[in-house]
Design brief:
Chain lengths: 292, 537
């Protein structure tokens, strides 16, 4: 009786510990979901926070963080929490567009470079080198300035400057695949180039693209923050994280530390979260690591 | 990966320094007590930006206040009355065309050469030829009758000509060259020693100065940004620092806050005409919404100027009702009852602006009461004003879209969009420039293309009046004559918002005399009465 009970208990404990021990794959999934939850949280928050939280309110200006205003208020009495959330969701939005555009450009150029012969390859490689050679921020500023600034300028600027490293990876991957045995066999069996591209090459590229997509995110967000911080692009009253940080510099001397601290911290967290998301995603879907 | 971690480290570092800076700033300031200022005959001032074009009066140096290195024929005293400086006597002919000025015979430039009527003639001729902001187009010719008498002949009478005699500093004919602005020589209270561009300007008392000798023998002007000036004041490194309202409530040990009244104003300029036209450069003119009188009047009545002063300027300012509040040519009738939402709604309703579709914005026919308000992106106060005004106007159903732009961009859009501008001068000519139809679309002046025949007539009469008193009467009539005018009671082409006080942190025991109402342009007007400054015990 006591033995069976003891056995039952050990079994229970085993089951429990089995539930509690998180293996690598589960941990990875957990990370991914919590990061995604975090992002949707921010986006939903910014959608639900009405513009009235952003309205000026001189009775409530320069308030330190409190229950009502978790991030404090600025010198016009605007709620910093609302501004930060709006700024972050703008950042995520810009990051999303930039990443999508970069992935598309990278895929296109990577494929053409690898499949269209030597001349095209060297031209595209030269372009990749060129873009990698120009300091990123300088190229960004030039492009967004030429396009007349504004949200449009920033988005396009960020979108067209982040593809080169990914394009290079794709190109190498495709070149390697092209000479792989199963591709050669397939070709011998009379399959056309289009069939080979869609059935053999593209499936191998998808993990690369997905991970590349996520890992571009933090770069795009940081660059968006940097360029708005420097005063290019958006109008200075718009809630963008770079603008919030740069205007807070003026008020640091007067002791309004919360104007810079919380938005800065949020930016840090969001960038780190995307980074973790990318790393974990790679662990999960990269064939070389998936079964570790 | 390295790059990535580097960027985290950077962000973390920024966040940490933020904390550290704000954390320790309080302790620091306690340590620095009033430094012994004994009988130091030197002052270090951080009171504003440096003039890019140098210190040449013939191209505009000193037009907002004391030229410091040079002296002028006349000047204004603390009550804004005109008194003599270099001049010993001046007279105007009956037709207002000929101005004769006799000057002192004992004046020397800082290089010990004498100042004569020929230098005055040379100065005015150079200024006329330079075609800079110094507007001397009205002057026909200027001659020296003898060594100490100058005669100006005007093309037509102009009462504001006297303001040129007040602001234009005299340069020496013999040593004037193209780089005079970098190395000025004059007969003012101080002489030029050294100018490190972007950093500092050092001046010393001019031993040849004919007026009251200043107490201080050496002045160093530091060119610091608003934040660094404040930090320097905190650290006890400067004797006078110009600060922005945001810093005004901070206690700095050993320093007191000096808040000077000014006509340095901020207001909203409205495009006055219907849309459809274009300037010669192809920039659009006019705006369908702001060309409606009811809209402009309702805005003027609805804005709570007192709240703007309290909220944005921290109380260091006053509500503005005209471009020239409290000047001798100001018409006190321009003051209106503002912050009155009911009255504003009534004005809108009388002008057939009503909210029929229930979206909170009033319409007239199919036209929604919505327009863009542009401000200079680099100016924090203007940004705050624009945002606050937009929020206030939302309550009466007018939707204002706020946009920050660079001045280059504003130049293209200022004829078709409302813009936050700042003016304010000791010269009523500014009013002429802003409101006369002759200046429609000229430079930064009448950008809204405002035109009213009667106002034009008053302005012309004021300009050609022979004495200041008659002129002032017409300046006032142009603002409001009981039935029309360019103030908010009349055509309301502008909504003036605030006059902001010029704020300085000053060493506690520095006496700075009595200051005049300050014009637009921070900093330099402050040193106008430098002779009166001294340490007090």
């Amino acid at each position: 009786m006591s033995e069976t009970k003891a056995l039952r208990i050990t079994n229970k404990v085993k089951g429990l510990s089995h539930l509690l021990t998180i293996n690598r794959r589960k941990g990875t999934l957990l990370m991914i979901f919590s990061a995604l939850f975090f992002f949707t949280g921010i986006i939903l928050m910014s959608l639900f926070i009405g513009d009235e939280r952003l309205a000026t309110n001189f009775d409530a200006k320069n308030l330190p963080p409190s229950f009502m205003n978790p991030f404090g208020t600025d010198w016009l009495g605007r709620d910093m929490f609302a501004r930060t959330m709006k700024g972050l969701s703008l950042s995520i939005f810009i990051g999303l567009i930039a990443s999508c555009a970069s992935v598309l450009v990278a895929l296109l150029l990577g494929l053409t470079a690898a499949l269209m012969g030597k001349v095209v390859d060297s031209i595209i490689s030269w372009f990749i080198d060129l873009f990698l050679g120009v300091p990123h921020l300088v190229a960004l500023i030039l492009i967004s300035f030429t396009l007349g600034g504004g949200v449009k300028g920033v988005i396009i600027g960020v979108a067209v400057t982040h593809w080169p490293s990914l394009a290079r990876v794709i190109r190498a991957e495709v070149m390697q695949l092209r000479s792989a045995e199963f591709v050669l066999v397939s070709r011998q069996m009379g399959k056309g180039p289009w069939w080979i591209a869609t059935h053999h090459i593209l499936p191998h590229l998808i993990p690369q693209l997905l991970v590349g997509f996520v890992l571009l995110f933090p770069h795009a967000i940081l660059h968006e923050a940097a360029i708005t911080f420097l005063g290019f692009g958006l109008s200075p009253h718009q809630p963008a994280i770079g603008i919030i940080l740069s205007e807070s510099m003026k008020y640091l001397a007067t002791g309004l530390w919360w104007l810079a601290f919380f938005p800065g911290l949020c930016l840090l967290i969001i960038v780190r979260a995307f980074d973790m998301l990318g790393d974990n995603l790679r662990l999960l879907i990269d064939p070389h690591n998936a079964h570790d | 990966m390295l790059k990535k971690s580097l960027s985290y480290i950077t962000i973390l570092a920024i966040a940490l320094t933020t904390l550290l800076l704000t954390g320790c700033s309080n302790d620091n300031s306690k340590k620095i007590t009033t430094m012994a200022t004994e009988n130091k005959k030197e002052l270090i001032l951080a009171i504003g930006s440096e003039p890019d074009e140098g210190f040449d009066p013939t191209t505009g140096w000193g037009r907002y206040g004391s030229p410091l290195f040079q002296s002028t024929l006349l000047k204004r005293n603390n009550d804004m009355e005109i008194v003599k400086d270099l001049a010993t006597e001046y007279s105007v002919s009956d037709d207002g065309l000929v101005w004769t000025v006799t000057i002192r015979d004992d004046v020397k430039f800082s290089d010990s050469t004498s100042l004569t009527a020929h230098d005055v003639v040379f100065t005015y001729q150079t200024a006329q030829e330079s075609s800079s902001v110094v507007d001397l187009t009205v002057m026909d010719r200027v001659e020296a009758l003898d060594d100490y008498t100058v005669q100006f002949t005007l093309k037509k009478p102009q009462s504001t000509f006297v303001n040129l005699l007040v602001t234009l500093g005299i340069v020496p004919k013999d040593s004037y060259s193209s780089d005079y602005g970098q190395n000025p020589i004059g007969s003012g209270p101080f002489k030029f020693v050294q100018w490190d561009k972007g950093q500092q300007l050092i001046v010393e008392a001019n031993p040849e100065y004919y007026g009251a000798k200043p107490y201080f023998e050496k002045l160093t002007f530091l060119y610091l940004s608003e934040e660094t000036a404040f930090a320097a004041a905190r650290a006890g490194q400067v004797d006078v620092a110009a600060i922005v309202p945001a810093f005004a409530n901070q206690q700095v040990p050993g320093m007191r806050l000096l808040a000077l009244e000014s006509v340095d104003n901020r207001g909203i300029m409205f495009p006055y005409t219907m849309e459809g036209n274009k300037t010669e450069e192809g920039h659009p003119i006019g705006n369908a919404v702001t060309s409606d009188l009811a809209i402009r009047k309702a805005i003027n009545v609805a804005i709570d100027r007192e709240a703007l002063v309290e909220g944005i300027l921290n109380g260091y300012g006053s509500p503005a009702y005209s471009v020239s509040d409290k000047m001798p040519w100001w018409n006190p009738d321009t003051v209106i009852q503002d912050g009155n939402l009911e009255e504003a709604k009534k004005i809108l309703a009388d002008g057939q602006w009503e909210d029929r579709d229930g979206d909170g914005i009033v319409e007239k026919g199919s036209l929604k009461a919505e327009f863009t308000l542009i401000y200079s992106a680099s100016d924090n106060t203007r940004q705050s004003l624009a945002i606050a005004v937009a929020d206030q106007l939302k309550q009466i159903g007018i939707k204002v879209n706020v946009e920050g732009k660079s001045w280059d961009e504003i130049k293209k859009q200022m004829h078709s969009n409302a813009v936050v501008f700042g003016w304010g001068s000791h010269d009523p000519l500014e009013m002429y420039h802003l409101y006369h139809s002759k200046y429609r679309g000229v430079s930064w002046y009448n950008t809204g293309y405002y035109a009213n025949d009667l106002v034009d007539k008053y302005l012309d009469k004021a300009l050609t009046a022979k004495d200041e008193e008659t002129a002032n009467q017409y300046w006032q009539k142009a603002q409001w004559d009981g039935s029309t005018g360019f103030s908010a009671k009349g055509d309301a082409p502008w909504a003036w918002l605030v006059n902001h006080n010029h704020l300085y942190l000053v060493k506690e025991n520095l006496y700075m005399g009595q200051q005049k109402i300050q014009p637009h342009g921070h900093g330099w007007p402050l040193t106008d009465n430098i002779e009166a400054w001294r340490w007090e015990n």
